[in-house]
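Translate sequence into structure tokens.
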Amino acid sequence: MYDDLLFPTDGSENAAVALEHAVSLADRYGATIHVLYVVNTNYSDIGATGETTIGTLRERGEETLREAEDRASAAGVDAVARIEEGDPYRTILEYAGENADLIVMGTRGRSGLDRYLLGSVTEKVVRTADVPVFTVRGGKR
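Result follows.
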């Protein structure tokens, strides 16, 4: 049913929970997991304090991708890792449009004013993706 799953990750605990589901689905369908880390170039703190730079975000992404690839490999699932720069939800949609037939991603479960003010990459992807999106609520309630 699914040949290529896109697992966009930010390295959070919520994403780690979603990865377990992505690996399980990929194993069940014999699919490849495309692990995508998007360096958010819209991030307002880049360069402001000198501590957060595109380079440090890219390094964090590389480590996150290695961990996800290792977990997929341990389960016998093929994984492709990719780092992109840009607006996360647009980059996820573009990548999915070219490479995936299912997106598996975590959500923080924000509600109310937080969700309205901060927005949600997952919510934007769910509303606009051309492929099915499997969301996994992670973390503590």
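Note: DSSP finds five helices and five strands in the chain.
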